[in-house]
Amino acid sequence: MSTMLVIRSLFRAQLLRRQFSTWHREKFDEQASLSDYNEFVDGWYILMLVSDVFVIIGTSLKLDVQTRQLPSVDDFQISCIFLGLSALLCYSGILRYLGYFRGYNILVLTLSHAMPKVFKFLTCALTLYFGYVVCGWLVLGPFNPKFRTLIITSQTLFSLLNGDDMFATFRMLEPGGPSFFSQFYLYSFICLFIYTVLSLFISVVMDSYETIKKNNGHRLHSRGIEKALDASASESESWPTDPHSFPFNHCFCVASADNQSSDDQPLLSATDE
Q1: What is the pTM of this model?
Q2: Helix 223-234 / helix 246-260 crossing angle, nearest 10 deg
Q3: What is the fold, at CATH topology level, of the domain defined by 101-232?
């Protein structure tokens, strides 16, 4: 039942997106942008849909394992993985309902606003990170057990990134290996990722927090949506009679309700004191 309701909501949102696209093209004589279309894709519904699918798969596998006389350990582990992921996604979805209460949605708003920037930043950072992983595996792998395989090398560098086991890693650089390169490799990785990459990552999240703060804790919309909201507000008298303005008026009402229920300015002010 939950899966059917979520699919229906996603389908109706796409119907509304098509109506908005037609209305936007007739109103402003231009196509809506991709960021405008993304406003009609609710990530919470997608999260719920994936969680429901995992529950169905995990439950089916669990029942299959229980009915077997000699179930394998792998099948049992796979069913537990699906059920565990579904539980994780289910509890993550609770954040959506906490967002309706005053003072609780600052985390959700900040993460939702920062997520696109975080993905772009991580794309560049992970590219450089995997470059260090491959380099360390090829050069230091024959001489250091902490760089023996790609997975172990990645685990070692991630530990160094969090400031763990630094001295032991330096001490394990064997004299028979390329000692100068080993020192340069570790020092450059630590300086670059700890002092630069992590600091920039925190700055990206803090920039989103400051943006939400300047907007008084309200949800931010794309430029095209804001433009259409202003146009719909100025033509509020024609809502009952103008069929072309109806599709987006529904979004306008929902957006207004979201702004009224997500006033976090007292919380934001309290965090600065």
Answers
A1: 0.64
A2: 110
A3: Helix Hairpins (1.10.287)
99 within 8 A of 105, measured Cβ to Cβ: yes
Per-residue pLDDT of the chain (273 residues; tens, 9 = 90+): 788 888 888 888 888 788 877 777 777 777 777 666 777 778 788 888 999 999 999 999 888 888 877 677 777 889 899 999 999 998 888 888 877 776 677 777 788 778 888 999 999 999 999 999 999 999 888 888 888 899 999 999 998 888 877 777 777 776 556 778 888 888 899 899 988 998 999 998 898 888 877 776 666 666 666 666 666 666 554 444 444 444 444 444 444 444 444 444 444 444 444
Q: Between helices 43-67 and 73-98, what is the axis angle to 10°?
A: 150
For CA atoms 140, 144, 150, 155, the dihedral sign is negative
Please tell me what DSSP assigns to residue 273.
-
Query: Which residue shows structure tokens 């949800």?
Result: 219
Residue 182: CB partners within 8 Å, gap ≥ 6?
A: 139, 140, 143, 144, 173
End-to-end CA distance of the chain: 47
Question: Do residues 43 and 112 touch, judged by C-beta distance below 8 A?
Answer: yes
Cβ-proximal residues to 254 (8 Å cutoff; 6+ apart), any chain? none
